Amino acid sequence: MVQYGRSDPQRQTAFPIAAAGYPFIGAAGFTTAVFALLGLTAAALIGLVATGCICMFFRDPDRVVPNGPGVVVSPADGRVIKAETVDNTPYFDGRCRKISVFMSVLNVHVNRVPHEGRIEKISYHPGKFVSANLDKASAENEHNAVFLQTDRGDRICFVQIAGLVARRILCDVQAGDRMERGQRFGMICFGSRLDVYLPLETELVVNIGDKVQSGHSVLGVLP
């Protein structure tokens, strides 16, 4: 039987919101209130719906994380669009496994660490904003790569990639930080894709088309 735990403290609220969403929600709520005070009923209703949609986008639910040696969990909610072996990549020495998770605007966009370990470095690259489900998005889009070494010495990399709508990548960790599996580390505002690079010997347990949840769904198991 799979055992589960928590990497972050449980929120004491029925509808947790990511801190990054507060300015957007506040601005939308204030505008809606102004419309209502001015008697602009149609505009106020539209504003109310927009505020609700923004709240849904920045929702940040608690997750239980599977325990077990070598378990790698998804860093993002969404759909698996790549699960393959790659030969050449700037994120890994030699051949490796690559899993890509595409996030639609309906998914939770808070990102979580796929495996416990220590952050070795973070590499940010500005770039384009083509649709994140395209193959070229990994190399051409704005992205932020987080390199982590596990306690057993395995190296993995997970890359936040902006998309067609996304214009802001948030990463709250720094080199040297100790992280737990499933712990929150950032989000992509209004976007879009996470790539995970794992050792070649990793046993993948997901297939293209599978739906996954950040911090909860298992992508693979390290050797």
Order of helices and strands: EHHEEEEEEHEEEEEEEEE
Q: Which whole number gives the mean pLDDT?
A: 88
CATH architectural label of the largest domain: Distorted Sandwich
Query: Total strand count, please?
Result: 16
Strand proportion: 25-35%
- Rg is 18 Å
Q: Specify the overall morphology.
A: elongated
Describe what this molecule looks like in 3D.
α1 (22-37) packs antiparallel against α2 (41-57). The chain is built from three helices and 16 strands. The protein is elongated and about 65 Å long. The strands form four sheets. It has an eight-stranded antiparallel β-sheet with strand order 11-7-8-9-13-5-4-15. A three-stranded antiparallel β-sheet has the order 3-16-14, with no helix packed on it. With 223 residues, it is of the alpha+beta class.
Structural descriptors:
elongated; 34% strand; 3-stranded antiparallel β-sheet; 3 helices; 8-stranded antiparallel β-sheet; Glucose Permease (Domain IIA); 223 residues; alpha+beta
